[in-house]
């Protein structure tokens, strides 16, 4: 009997390859997308971690400032501590680098990370950063002024000639409005983005930052208690309040935590295809079971038990799942490899910019995602397997088909929906909305479970309207009496349409909120910024006095400076962004606040935090923030340090900085830090001004500021000067172009969701086609009886099309309602818990109506096509078989 069952199953798969291929393709697509997302992110995280370990070395602890720099006097105290074996001072900066003599016309300026460290300590603390001078270099080349050592990425990007080239290649480093000349004397082996290493003293002299440090790396004496050592350091007389102690692996962990929500959401989105693929497997096997009903009945007569028939269909679904999973893993690996080469592992999230990871293939991950594919296929084959198990042999051999199904119990669906509502109210788990994802799944299953009850209720209400139209009444009456079958038929449409509606509403809500946010944060028509935006950091800052100089130019009505700077309040969390800008008397005019601004008490400084700060740091409007006060220690007139008192006056929306942002008035920031440099300059031109002439005047002001900038002493007589060809120091961008580019990036980032919607709808419609095909094959005698009663073939097809319209119409209504419910969870729960920002609900009614109409028309046409084969001469002959 087992051999007969295996032969029976194999013959069906062999004789209907297109049907099996469709199910395999659906499973393959879901597994491929999910596995590709996992491989890409795992590879990027691994490469980023390796780069961090190479650049940071292997210290036991790192001393870093919350913002700004540390003083060398602190280094002297720490280095002489008895528990410290080695202390390495580090100064980091960013610059745009280009060859002084362009060896290739294709060589473009490159964002370069410049790192100064004690070369004598690097072999023990950070071997990958140890400079390796080229042959013929001077004995003191490690400590020579204005001398750098490049890693492989920098050598390739800058087109530096190989070792032995004379004279030594020279680079131009542009930071702010300064241009500095440095000489390349060798290499370092550190991987990752372009990097230049030089002696700490030479770096301080070159950048004009004598006495300043970015961090201090510490190696402790063996057996030192780290907890006690932390307390001892923080008790030092000169320990600054804004200094923090971090573990060496904190940087990689911060990026992993930051990108985790992004990775999880991408994976869940990819699994949408696998979810809908389960419905396609269901439809394929439902059609197969209906077509093979007499064969299953014959197997039952020959001795096959109901359990064996159940196992047979489940084995077929598992076989389809295995084939789809294997193909999906292969396709996912290929997709991940291509994405790593083309996108660098970034996937649009911006978390791994500059990282070029290698493919990291994992067997446990492959087994996990392959198992998900098999499980989805088996889940899709469960109901057809139950149908084969419950098949009545005698009636099926006579061709009587299946009996009418009952509506089922609606309380099961209601319980699932109630459980979904409770789960949606739970907080995130480890920063991930796991409960919300489960709530969405229960909501979908509960909604589909309510379909038989909903079909019965709605068709009962429609029956009086069709009482005078026999064909319409016949279609509605049969759909009502076969409501369980109808619910199964349109289940795929409901599932796929609800997901499509939810994604459509979520994307439309997000896009509409982003447009409103851009209108609020881009008040001026023109923005001026440094041409070194790619380098970031201090390199992209404009010098003190530049805003005032531009404000005095003719044709300028008003300017508003903006300064962005990082703030590391906690070593366990990514850095915050501090935004200083003129807030005026009404901050609501320049910030998209979520509520009214609170009055700031006298003697305190008002700050406005983004929604991410509220979630990550647990602060609320109306509170003081002592931790933030530690980061700002201005010096009072009596030379005694005092902490600023910050008052949280409001919360604003920020769709750029997932890690959180703090906004305060420019005057307060400059008073607290003494730093008057700016990042951007919002500019309002006067009416009727010649924009080209105004931009030329601003460029001239930038050139004058560059000439007046302090010259960094590089010890070799090289002074600041412009790169050949006088490249622009500043660039101009209009608010309109920023809006357009932002929306282009948004649409490109969410393009995959539209594609997944189309796939889901296609799978749902294929499920309807398969269900209708299965049913009309089982209803051949019914159609033959209608033909004997006088109905024409056209009228029979009209009845079938009417049933299809009724079923898909109900499915469309249920799908839209269920999709709106899912979108509420996505917009108001998943999005805030994942990315810490809120948005306004926006329902694109016209798009949803178009989507529903397309589904109803497609379902009606599909039903009509499926009924053509069963409404002809064969149906009449099928009735005669019983005579």
How is this structure best described in words?
The chain is α+β, with helices and mostly antiparallel strands and 883 residues long. 54% of the residues lie in helices and 14% in strands. The protein has an 8-stranded mixed β-sheet with strand order 17-16-18-15-14-19-13-20. Strands 3-4-9-6-8-7 form a 6-stranded mixed barrel. Strands 2-10 form a two-stranded antiparallel sheet. A hairpin with a 2-residue loop joins strand 7 and strand 8. About 4% of the residues have low confidence.
Shape: elongated
Parts with pLDDT < 50 across at least 5 consecutive residues: 348-352, 403-407, 634-641, 711-725
Helix/strand-derived class?
Answer: alpha+beta
Outline the biggest β-sheet. 8 strands, mixed
In spatial order, strands of the major sheet run 17-16-18-15-14-19-13-20
Give the helix level as a range of percent.
40-55%
Please tally the helical runs, counting DSSP H or I stretches of 4 or more residues.
29
How much strand content do the residues show? 5-15%
Terminus-to-terminus distance: 33 Å
* Rg: 34 Å
Please supply descriptive tags for the structure shown above.
elongated; single chain; six-stranded mixed barrel; 883 residues; alpha+beta; eight-stranded mixed sheet
């Amino acid at each position: 009997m087992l051999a007969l069952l295996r032969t029976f199953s194999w013959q069906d798969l062999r004789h209907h390859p297109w049907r099996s291929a469709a199910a395999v393709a659906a499973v393959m697509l879901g597994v491929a997308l999910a596995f590709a997302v996992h491989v890409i992110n795992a590879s990027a995280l691994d490469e980023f971690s390796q780069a961090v370990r190479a650049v940071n070395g292997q210290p036991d602890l790192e001393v870093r400032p919350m913002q700004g720099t540390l003083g060398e006097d602190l280094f002297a105290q720490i280095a002489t501590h008895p528990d410290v074996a080695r202390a390495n001072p580090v100064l980091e900066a960013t610059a745009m680098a280009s060859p002084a003599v362009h060896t290739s016309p294709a060589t473009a300026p490159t964002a370069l990370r410049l790192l100064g460290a004690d070369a004598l300590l690097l072999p023990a603390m950070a071997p990958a950063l140890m400079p390796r001078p080229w042959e013929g270099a001077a004995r003191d080349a490690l400590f020579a002024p204005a001398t750098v050592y490049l890693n492989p990425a920098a050598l390739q990007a800058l087109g530096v000639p190989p070792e032995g080239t004379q004279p030594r290649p020279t680079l131009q480093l542009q930071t702010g409005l300064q241009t500095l000349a440095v000489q390349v004397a060798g290499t370092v082996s550190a991987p990752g983005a372009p990097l230049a290493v030089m002696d700490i003293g030479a770096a301080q002299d070159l950048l004009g930052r004598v006495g300043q440090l970015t961090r201090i790396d510490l190696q402790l004496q063996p057996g030192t208690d780290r907890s006690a050592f932390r307390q001892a350091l923080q008790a030092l007389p000169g320990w600054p309040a804004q200094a923090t102690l971090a573990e060496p692996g904190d940087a990689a962990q911060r990026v992993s935590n930051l990108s985790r929500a992004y990775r999880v959401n991408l994976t869940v989105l990819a699994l949408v295809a696998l979810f809908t693929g389960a419905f396609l497997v269901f439809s394929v096997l439902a059609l197969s079971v209906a077509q093979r009903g007499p064969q299953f009945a014959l197997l039952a007569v020959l001795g096959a038990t109901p359990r064996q028939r159940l196992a047979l269909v489940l084995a077929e679904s598992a076989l389809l799942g295995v084939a789809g999973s294997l193909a999906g893993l292969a396709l996912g690996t290929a997709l991940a490899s291509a994405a790593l080469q083309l996108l660098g592992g970034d996937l649009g999230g911006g978390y791994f910019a500059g990282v070029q990871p290698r493919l990291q293939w994992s067997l446990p991950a492959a087994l996990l995602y392959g198992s998900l594919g098999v499980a989805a296929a088996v889940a899709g084959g469960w109901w057809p397997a139950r149908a084969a198990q419950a098949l009545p042999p005698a009636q099926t051999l006579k061709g009587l088909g299946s009996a009418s199904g009952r509506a089922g119990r609606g309380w099961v669906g209601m319980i699932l929906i109630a459980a979904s509502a409770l789960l949606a109210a739970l907080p995130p788990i480890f920063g991930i909305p796991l409960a919300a994802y489960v709530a969405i799944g229960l909501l979908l299953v509960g909604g589909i479970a309510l379909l038989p009850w909903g079909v019965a209720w709605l068709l009962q209400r429609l029956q009086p309207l069709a009482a005078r139209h026999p064909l319409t009444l016949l279609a509605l009456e049969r759909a009502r009496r076969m409501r369980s079958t109808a619910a199964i038929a349109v289940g795929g449409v409901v599932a796929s349409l609800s997901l499509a509606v939810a994604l459509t509403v979520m994307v439309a809500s997000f896009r509409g909120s982003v447009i409103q946010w851009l209108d609020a944060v881009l008040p001026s028509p023109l923005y001026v910024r440094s041409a070194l935006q790619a380098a970031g950091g201090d390199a992209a800052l404009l010098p003190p006095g530049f805003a005032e100089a531009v404000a005095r130019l003719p044709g300028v009505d008003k300017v508003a400076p903006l300064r962005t700077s990082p703030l590391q309040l906690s070593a366990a969390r990514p850095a915050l962004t501090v935004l200083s800008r003129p807030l005026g008397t009404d901050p609501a005019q320049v910030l998209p606040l979520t509520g009214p601004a609170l009055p700031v008490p006298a003697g305190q400084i008002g700050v406005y935090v983004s929604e991410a700060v509220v979630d990550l740091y647990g602060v609320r409007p109306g509170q003081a923030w002592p931790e933030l006060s530690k980061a700002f220690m201005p010096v009072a007139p009596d030379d005694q340090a005092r902490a600023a008192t910050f008052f949280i006056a409001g919360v604003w929306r920020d769709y750029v900085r997932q890690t959180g942002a703090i906004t305060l008035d420019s005057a307060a920031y400059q008073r607290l830090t003494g730093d008057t440099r700016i990042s951007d300059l919002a500019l309002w031109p006067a009416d009727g001004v010649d924009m080209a002439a105004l931009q030329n005047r601003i460029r001239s002001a930038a050139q004058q500021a560059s000439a007046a900038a302090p010259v960094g002493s590089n010890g070799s007589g090289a002074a600041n000067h412009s790169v050949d060809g006088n490249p622009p120091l500043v660039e101009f961008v209009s608010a309109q172009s920023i809006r357009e580019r932002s929306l282009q990036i948004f649409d490109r980032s969410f393009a995959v969701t539209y594609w997944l919607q189309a796939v889901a709808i296609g799978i749902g419609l294929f499920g309807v086609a398969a269900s209708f095909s299965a049913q009309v094959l089982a209803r051949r005698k019914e159609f033959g009886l209608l033909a004997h009663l006088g109905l024409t073939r056209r009228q029979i097809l009209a009845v079938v099309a009417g049933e299809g319209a009724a079923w898909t119409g109900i499915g469309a209504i249920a799908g839209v309602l269920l999709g709106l419910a899912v979108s509420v969870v996505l917009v108001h729960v998943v999005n805030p818990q994942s990315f810490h920002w809120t948005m306004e609900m926006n329902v694109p009614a016209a798009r949803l109506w178009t989507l529903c109409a397309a589904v109803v028309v497609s379902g009606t046409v599909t039903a009509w096509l499926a009924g053509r084969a069963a409404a002809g001469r064969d149906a009449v002959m099928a009735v005669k078989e019983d005579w």
